[in-house]
Amino acid sequence: MKKTTITFLVSALLIISGLQAQTVQDGKNHLFAQRYNSAVSTFEKMLATNPNNIEAIYWLGQTYLESEEIMAARIAAARQLYEKAMQSTNSAPLIIVGMGHVDLLENKTSDARQKFETALTMTRTKKGDNVDILNAVGRANTDAKSGDFNYAIEKLQAAADKGEKNAETFVLLGNAYRKARPGEGGGEAFRNYKKALDVNPNFSLASLRLAKLFESQKNWDLVLQYLNEATAKDPKFTAAYYELFYYYFYRLDLVEAEKQLQNYIDSKLPEKDIQDEFLYAQLCWRQKEYNCATTKAESVVAALGSKTKPKVYRLLADAYFQKSDYTNAKKYSDEFFAKKNPDDYISYDHKLRADIMSKTGGSPDEIYNNYLQGAELDTLLTGKIDFLKQGIAYFKENKIRDKEAMLIEKVIGLKPAPTINDYFDLSLAHYFGKQHEKSRDAAVIMIEKFPDQVYGYEWAYNNSIAIMTDTLRSDTARKTYKESTGIPDVLKLYEFSNKDTAKFKKQYINSVRYLAAYYINEAKDKDRSLEFFRKWLEADPANASTIQEYINQIEKMPSRPPAPKNGTPKPASVPGKTP
After folding, report:
1. Does residue 574 register a pLDDT over 60?
2. CB contact at 8 A, 161 and 170
3. What are the residue boundaries of the structural domains of the chain, listed by start?
4. CA dist list (Å): 456 to 425, 467, 505
5. Tens digits of per-residue pLDDT, 111-123?
6. 555 vs 369, 508, 527, 529, CA distance in Å?
7. Which of 284-293, 528-537, 551-560 has the lowest mean pLDDT?
8. Which helix (H) or strand (E) holds 305?
9. What is the average pLDDT across 495-502?
10. Which residues have C-beta within 8 Å of that of residue 14, sequence separation ≥ 6?
11. How far apart are CA 344 and CA 341, in angstroms?
């Protein structure tokens, strides 16, 4: 009987021990380490035992808000959980803050603030506000883009000032300073993360936040130091191994990257996730082992089906493109854009799509629109311009000059002070696209903005020559253009190049040669023609004999040729040639 009793007690203790293992802190530890599946499992087991466990409900919602990549999905999951809990817990203050967090993520700032203040009022005592509520309010405002970061600092500082040793409060306060004062809040963030470690030296989350702080400052030695510190304090701190994987991944130390990837996977055991195959697919892609990359990424798609993350489709589209399998590349590019994550959608996605379309029969308009859309996604002006330049290079290489010109115009529109090269490129794109009037317009702008440079004068000349010799225009239209615009453009090039005939020899010869022929063949002005023939002769000794023959013929001609008997002008017989 005694033995049976002892056995029963041992069994009971094991059961109690098992129940005690499922604590809110255990779930939070999983969440902080980014073992999301384990965190969800822990909180769900607690709620299976007590459906109204307010802390477990709140932290399960916080896990949803961090674990789901698609914002709309994570907001929906958290809202559904908190709305149900508002009924079952009779609007517990912590759940009210959770609802306010969701409101902020939906940009309902007024509704959120009202909920935060209500929760604080409900829990306020003579000793002040409740630390857990203050932390939750600070966390919500720091997490959401529409949050009030200074309000978060105010509440978190109040929590810290209560004198309770709470490492989590200091980490949250450091996060809030970084959000409230980007570029200058690093010092306060650093001090608060360090305070968290003073309270709890083994708090790996604080070390991780220090690593991320120095990542923003590109201090890579300290990034590595604090990531290693995080794993030394907690060998199962999954989040640090994830960061270490990418630290080495981007530095092309792929052997070490694979080692950290394995550490990442091992740190989650017994939790397993098919998504880890995507990380291996990325590693294969980085090693340019595209067959490996597609095989592993395809296994993720096969396992998850419609729940596959858009980033998997992005990798498959790129890997198949690199393999020159353009059919599958387009298939997965289509999948990516059909299901793209607004929070993980970058300019590169449109560059890849444009490249794929160029191989699969995409129209110039479709490709052009992808470059425009990709540029819009970049938040930096330099990034927008650099992205558009990739499209300019593509259209130039493929001789689609109208689209090249359109993108150059976009670049000019973005730049506060476009350079002469911008207008020069625009003029050339229009010129080779047979849009000579538009090309001349760009050249005229060069003349206006950069009057001491030859390029505007030269390309106004080139385009006027093309327009004056365009056989698709009527004789009347060409004559009118020549008198109003063409010859003035030639004269401007002559006047500019005449300032330094050695430096601008080509432009000078072109202009005087044209004017020499024009004045004898069309203007019928012998003296003016001889003036320019002699200038040509002086500048072009290599063709002296030919030019001198023209001069000799013209000199023998009467100053004004007699009108023919029928009254119509007699064509000039001098073999002057308009270039």
Report:
1. no
2. no
3. 203-273
4. 11, 16, 16
5. 999 999 999 999 9
6. 61, 23, 9, 10
7. 551-560
8. none
9. 96
10. none
11. 5
Work out the pLDDT band at 18, boundaries 50, 70, 90.
very low
> Cα angle at 279 between 384 and 145, to 5 degrees?
45
- How far apart CA 128 and CA 220 sit, in angstroms, is 42
Mean pLDDT across the chain, nearest whole number? 91
Query: For 420-433, how does the pLDDT look when each residue is reduced to its tens digit (9 = 90+)?
Result: 999 999 999 999 99
Q: Does the pLDDT value for residue 391 go beyond 60?
A: yes
Q: How many helices (H) and strands (E) does the chain have?
A: 31, 0
Least Cα distance to 218 among 254, 171, 251, 260 occurs for: 251
Cβ burial of 547 (10 Å; 0-12, 13-18, 19+) is buried
CB atoms under 10 Å from CB of 548, counted, come to 13
Rounded to the nearest angstrom, the gap between the alpha carbon of residue 157 and the centroid of all alpha carbons in its chain is 35
Q: Count the neighbouring beta carbons within 10 Å of the beta carbon of residue 51.
A: 13
Residue 493 has a pLDDT of 98
CATH number of 203-273: 1.25.40.10
d(CA 569, CA 561): 9
Which two tokens mark 459?
Answer: 């390309």
- Cα 258 → chain centroid: 27
- Dihedral (C-alpha) 494, 497, 499, 505: value to the nearest 10 degrees? -120
Fill in the amino acid letter for 541: P
Closest to 423 measured CA to CA, from 456, 378, 462 = 456
Residue matched to tokens 């001789």 = 399
Write out the two tokens for 243.
């960061």
What pLDDT, in 10s, does the model give residues 185-217?
A: 689 999 999 999 999 999 999 999 999 999 999
HEC secondary structure over 195-249: HHHHHCCCCHHHHHHHHHHHHHCCCHHHHHHHHHHHHHHCCCCHHHHHHHHHHHH
Segment (H or E) for 178: helix 167-180
> Three-state DSSP class for 361?
coil
Are 310 and 340 contacting, i.e. CB atoms less than 8 angstroms apart? yes
